[in-house]
Amino acid sequence: MPRGRKSYTLEEQLEITINSIAETEAALKELKQKKKALEAEIKQKNIAELYDMIQQSGKSLDEVKAMLQ
């Protein structure tokens, strides 16, 4: 036979809520760090691709800068 849910006191409910908030904040911090790392990796990949394209074009970096300005 299933048991009913445990009835928590207000203090216990507060402690559970505080712990849940702390766990969620830790998970959020970890996700933000992962996001930042992924963005940096994407940026480096894009820079490498752009550099390769400049090298293949036979133009100097200064020539490409002048074309873009």
Can you tell me the overall shape? rod-shaped
Strand count: 0
What percentage of amino acids are in beta strands? Answer: under 5%
Q: What's the total helix number?
A: 2
Question: What is the arithmetic mean of pLDDT?
Answer: 94
H/E element sequence: HH
What does this protein structure show overall?
- This is Flagellar export protein FliJ.
- The chain is built from 2 helices and no strands.
- By secondary structure, the chain is an all-alpha fold.
- The termini are far apart.
Précis, in short:
With about 70 residues, the chain is mostly helical.
Descriptive key words:
single chain; mainly alpha; rod-shaped; coiled coil
Question: What is this structure's SSE topology?
Answer:
Layout: H1 10-57, H2 61-68
